[in-house]
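for the record, two folds in this file. i put them one after another cuz i was lazy. first one right below, seq on top, structure tokens after. the second one comes after a little note so u can tell where it starts
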Amino acid sequence: MEQNEQDLLRELAEHYGISSEYHDIWGQRHETSAETRRAILDAMGVRIESAEAVRRALEDCADAPWRRVCEPVRVTRVDEPAGRWPVCLPAQEQEDRDIVLSWDVRDEAGALRQQGRAGPGLVPSATRRVDGFRHARFELPLPSGLPIGYYDVTVKGLSESRQVDGTLRLIVAPSACYMPPSFVDHRNGHRLWGLAVQLYALRSARNWGAGDFGDLGTFVEWVAKDLRAGLIGLNPLHAINNTRPFQVSPYSPASRLFLNVLYLDIESIPEFQVSQSAQQMVQDAGFQRALAALREGGEVEYEQVMAAKRAVLESLWATFCERHLGSREPGEQDLKPATERGQAFARYLKEEGEPLEMFALFQTLAEDMRRQHPLVWAWREWPEPYRSPHSASVAAFRVTHRARIRFYQYLQWVAAQQLGAVAHRTRELGMPVGLYHDLALGSDRNGSDAWVYQDVLALDADCGCPPDAFAAQGQNWGLPPPNPVRLRATGYRMFIELIRRNLAYGGALRLDHVMGLFRLFWIPRGMPAFAGAYVRYPVEDLLGILALESVRHKAVIIGEDLGTVPDGVRERLAAGRVLSYRVLYFERSGSGEWNAPETYPRQAMAVIGTHDLPPLAAFWAGEDIALRVRLGLYADDEAVRRARDERHHDKQQMLRALGAAELLPPGMVEDAAMAQPMTPELCRALHLFLARTPSWAVLANLEDLLGEMAQTNVPGTVGSHPNWSRKLAVPLEQLRDDARVHQAASALRAVRPPTQQR
């Protein structure tokens, strides 16, 4: 490639936010190759086949703002000066002063909030010849004095020869995310604590082999009333396909917009109480034997649990239709509900609108395609007319399969009712935060989100991370990244829906890999991870939307800021009141010493470990190292020896940190870490260490308090380890009386006394 062409390609890549280099965790510089630039541009829909194509693409970049009347979206802060916005019109020079611009501002309900008019006599701020025509740009004042929210600003441009229309999506955001007033009181700021659990891992005598929303309700009552914790942390509850081993990870869901119906408490659904057929099915001796086996197993058998629930749900849907919709096959476009419950379902469909309709449509299509083409699972392999959600074939399918689409909408409605009831109960019980949810970074390219938002997602790329201490060749997470150009061009509709829907059921939301608001490491499909490049995102716009939805829902935002964190990221997040996520295992000085409690930031959530790290007991016993040896994840015996030596050093430093904080349990010796087991007393001491930090929230993992050894997820494995499947050893009925948990809770309450906030 000639030097001039390389320079042009670099300039084009820079325009699309593709960084020219990155530095790995050891500080080694990696320059973005021409091949990577081309592949990422191609994934963004910018086809580059020659130097001339690069020049044309650069010209298109320069001309694009002039071809549209106004930009698609503008995010402003309510406390900032309004500024101005550009309007571009094709106009001859002699027409400029005759042009009249008028605009109106409407809110989300369609109500007119403001109007404006400018001209004649306007003077353009700039002109450019585009597509053979002269275009003039005029600067108008942005509407001011509007409360936070979403607005449509419609502008009309009139001259003697033409009229043009354009619409700007104006998003007026607060300056920062929501924070409970008690947190930000600098003199008496309240610090709370909570308990985290993987919902599917809860055992109980009544569930069907996986923890469900009924178990969650029981868990909430216990945690709020007996333990008096302020929040309950959950794994992502996103919709997944529930098939092991590839489609059970909550961090690679089919949809981040909707819920996993595996968590439905079947026997508490109102239709179950009146459905003789469903009750007979469940009471059948064979069915009960199957449920007993699913309950007793140490791992969640996703397919079997879902198959049992699905069979009953089909019957419950038929009952609902007969009793509340007056028909076994409600295929009409407009529902005709016959009861108050039927009317509630109709209201839900109206409120959820097109996103739910498209999700249910995809579920119905996928079901139909599997029936017709059993070996085809990916929607990109469907017959071509069905690959686009906007095709005529899909529109026809939508009409002919209306009843089945409604079935999948019904499932989401029931899930929303059950989870919503639990969230409501946390408020009744006075929990300051209540449910703390987790938003995965991305979704599976074969799922409904990818099908619906294929105009926004770069399906021919993955996101991951550069080489680091855990992965010398980098990591590929297998998730298609959003195209930042298309994200903005579509008014951020996908991002808004994601945040809004994931804030609907609780008082806090954790964003996995929050650095994705700033940049993501793109890896073109088929290339090794280290050959990827960072792509920048419109962070100020995204933070504004995040703050807007956070304030509207009165929900705290936590950013998972682990790994390679670019300079300035934590400071910008802190300014926006996004809590940092501090993990005890990683909070150390350069010499390996554990940071003292007082060094933790106030605006943070502190935890001992994460789902990708070993539970405390396993860490202390080195079980995670032994597991990695069994799985063949170490390069050689020397790597194993280094890991064991490092663990010995880590444990010594941990005991020394406890000693410095005067928290070392009686009988524990700082320099004899290897000879001392993990005990409930040592576990409590480590949690007290975190509790003494100034951080606003501390989250204890239930598995740590119970001394569990099984790791939730081992990164880099799929079929060789039962990721996202292990159940807790202690069932819910016994858990409520477990002395280890109660003693830890008592110790945490002594440092972080309970309060009622919401």
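(here's the note) second protein begins now
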Amino acid sequence: MTFLQSIFLAGLAAALIPVLIHLLNRPRARVVRFSTLEFIRRLQIKKSRRIRFREILLLLLRVALIALLALAFARPALRGAAAGIGGRARTSACIVLDASYSMGYGEGDRTLFDRAKERARSAADLLQEGDEALLLLASSSPESRFERPTHNFRLLDAEIDRAVLGARGTDFSLSLLEAARALEGSRNANREIYLVSDMQRIGFADAGAAGAAIAEAGIRLFLLPVGEGARPNRAVTGAELYEPRRFGETLRIRATAINYGEEPTEGLVTLLLDGERRGTSPIRLEPGGTESVLFSVLLRGGGTHAGEIRLDDDPLPRDDAFFFTFHRPDRLEVLLVGDPSGEGTRYLRNALDPDGNEGAEGEGGMIHVQTADPSELRSIRLDRFHAVFLAGPAVRDEGVVAPLEEYVLGGGGVVIVPGDGIDVGFYNRVLLPRLAGNVRFGPVASSPGGLPAGVDRFDAEHPLFTVFRQGLDRALRDLRIYRHLRIETDAAARAVARIADGDPLLVEARRGAGRVFLWAVGADPEWSDLPTRPFFLPLVHETVRYLYSGGALHMGSLAVGRSYRKDVTGLVLGEEVLCRTPREEVALQPRSEGDRLLLEFDGTGLPGFYRIESEGFDDLFAVNPETEESDLAPLPESEWEERLGTDRFTVIPEKQRPDRPVLQARYGRELRRELLWLAFFVAVAELVLGRGLRRSAPIPRDD
């Protein structure tokens, strides 16, 4: 047992007061003899003994009453751990304050983040002299506000007040593990973590390991939720760009929004282009439904354009806007990597540039082709190209895999067309995991029975095929495929077309902001008659257009917190580069990496537009929050134990002050209430016994 307010134990000395009063105020009896009353004397002596017993009992009750009150104010508790000097163990606490953008949800005139700050301060108020504390802002990238635990609780309160809501998603696993590591070195008997959050379901995805680690380390975990009931929300999830057949024609942009609420909602979607409103359209969203709005705009010039899709405001404004940029070149630049003498390379080059004049105006004039041997790939800046074709054996050098991966992650498009002599092992071991995730090439398969196979089915809604008029279905089914590479895919990849035996013919995989197409057949007649078909040329051109636009406006868009990385070979090393963010201006310095000069920037913590400028370089890109965070559904309390992997945590509802459950968890069950009730019953007994004693007081006698 320990006493949470041991100073009140001094009140036990007051229990001596009734004893002193009893001893000092004992009445001195006078004996007066009456012959006629002598027969009563023996009866009076017997009655006096009973009264004296009651007086002693009354004295004990009064002593007990004072002692019980003193003990109650000293707050005794049954503890499970040893206390320090003075009856109180020191505490090391880490307050984990959720700063993900879902906490910006408004309820009334305050946000959940405002209420979370109040709860964080109430947890800080439990700390006393000798305790220490840390403050951690939780998100997908946790931020500690102290390098080491602080004993200055005024500074702790000030840091809680200064905490700013971020634009990142929620990841309680990272945040709780970081908090547990921060408390590992503490020697204090009490180590505590306070998680103050809206308890969003998505944040508990991988929290089991963190919860188990906290329980194993003997750290107490307190969950302080904020917000009650359903929190409906809608968000802009992205936008797709559809290039016109020729430059100068109408550009189509399709915006997509989703309703995470349980009720239908209506609103307006607005397209802003280069700061000017270019269209507004109503939208109706069913519960859990996704809808799209199509805008048609005529660009008023080439170059880089900045756009924004915006929903009218709702209680969570952070996800009501989607920012994007795109560059409108005079012509599309394509890099064709392959053996210049190879049959597949020749067919692809002729399809990309049928006039053979490297991009002059005409049927194929909007595409300019640069052919390169695979050995030259190391010295080429890939970011200048809107699409890269890897034909035939193509890549066998591990040194070019990193630039290709960087190109795809940044929004580039790659088309892999196999050929004779392709090193399937190298592709599966090195290239494809970096560019296409879990997609793999299998062995070469011949058509069953020796007869050419055709196309069994294809996605007619895919942008590659929507440009073709009637007859494409028959043309594809008449395609003669003699042999092909088997392609193994997963749920993240998409089979755009399949061969009659069910194997994929064309697969689209996404990596970062870019896309990768993988053909199962080579681009020469030894594999199929595809290169000799009339639709081969427009199909190749549509592939370039689709990869240029990305099918989605991600060429110039990064997720919040994702690093910007750009090859700026050609700039002078040491030349000053300035980045204008939505909040400030930052000076950058390129660094050399081998033969390349790279520019990196990690400060993409806010959504909006970022412009990087120097004397010989100008780039504009957009940053957006990850919309998975827009699903505000909280994790039901019945699932907290399962997601955390432990039952060693205490939930403190928002309407309850944290002091009682926290102190009870530290020291065990507090006995204050029981002692007060016992003191009440003792007081009642004293009152009843005192009244009865006054009625039966003995007649004084004089000796």
